């Protein structure tokens, strides 16, 4: 068990080092030597777990996706309503982008590898499916206006958040990500939320986690 624990710790160390390289340099700019420097492991340790840079990149994407889905499960377990869960899931994604190198690298790699090496669609599909289910529950609970299509709303939210965080990253290094997210909800919620839910949801949408700059 001790050997397995050490192996798991080393693998995660390599993933974090790779994430820091991919986050800063992208897939094309990152090198195995740079990943080794960020990971502080031997070349043998790296190759024991990953056979190539491409294998490392896909592992980072997989780990990022797992982290995001786990965070969504925690939100679903604590949120008091489906619409509250939708708003809090978006805020948690913003928090992860600001605090987790693996998440930032995974998001960048999903776009880069999806453009050049075939689709990296699982994260988008799973997030959309999660939001479709939540929106359908919100409709049944009377929290969404009856005219809102749950699938269309889910697709719009995933696309909007993806574009919003990219623009935020380009213009401010994501320093204004919470503000942009609050703006999105302030514009969207009045047109989709049931009137008796609106003030509470806008309050949640304006909250932000304390994140060190």
UniProtKB/TrEMBL annotation:
Q: Where is the signal peptide?
A: none
The protein's matches in PROSITE patterns, at most eight in alphabetical order, are given as: HTH_TETR_1 (PS01081), HTH_TETR_2 (PS50977)
InterPro entries attached to this UniProt entry: ArpA-like (IPR047923), CprB_TetR_C (IPR054126), DNA-bd_HTH_TetR-type_CS (IPR023772), Homeodomain-like_sf (IPR009057), HTH_TetR (IPR001647), Tet_transcr_reg_TetR-rel_C_sf (IPR036271)
SUPFAM superfamilies named among the record's database cross-references:
Homeodomain-like, Tetracyclin repressor-like, C-terminal domain
Question: Which keywords label this protein?
Answer: DNA-binding, Transcription, Transcription regulation
Coiled-coil ranges per the record? none
Indicate the segments forming the HTH tetR-type domain, all copies: 8-68
Q: Which residues bind DNA?
A: 31-50
**A Pfam family in this protein?**
TetR_N
Could you tell me what this protein is called?
Answer: TetR/AcrR family transcriptional regulator
- What organism is recorded for this protein? Rhodococcus tibetensis
């Amino acid at each position: 068990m001790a050997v397995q624990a050490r192996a798991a710790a080393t693998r995660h160390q390599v993933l974090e080092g790779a994430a820091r390289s991919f986050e800063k340099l992208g897939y094309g700019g990152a090198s195995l030597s740079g990943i080794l420097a960020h990971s502080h492991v031997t070349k043998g340790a790296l190759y024991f777990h990953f056979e190539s840079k491409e294998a490392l990149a896909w592992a980072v994407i997989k780990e990022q996706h797992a982290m995001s889905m786990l965070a969504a499960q925690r939100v679903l377990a604590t949120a008091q309503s489906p619409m509250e869960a939708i708003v809090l899931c978006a805020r948690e994604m913003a928090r992860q982008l600001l605090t987790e190198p693996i998440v930032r690298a995974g998001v960048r790699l999903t776009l880069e590898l999806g453009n050049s090496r075939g689709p990296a669609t699982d994260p988008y599909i799973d997030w959309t499916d999660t939001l479709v289910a939540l929106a359908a529950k919100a409709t049944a609970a009377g929290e969404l206006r009856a005219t809102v299509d749950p699938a269309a709303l889910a697709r719009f939210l995933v696309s909007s958040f993806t574009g919003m965080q990219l623009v935020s990253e380009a213009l401010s290094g994501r320093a204004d990500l919470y503000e942009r997210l609050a703006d999105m909800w302030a514009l969207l919620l009045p047109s989709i939320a049931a009137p008796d839910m609106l003030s509470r949801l806008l309050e949640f949408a304006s909250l932000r986690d304390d994140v060190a700059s």
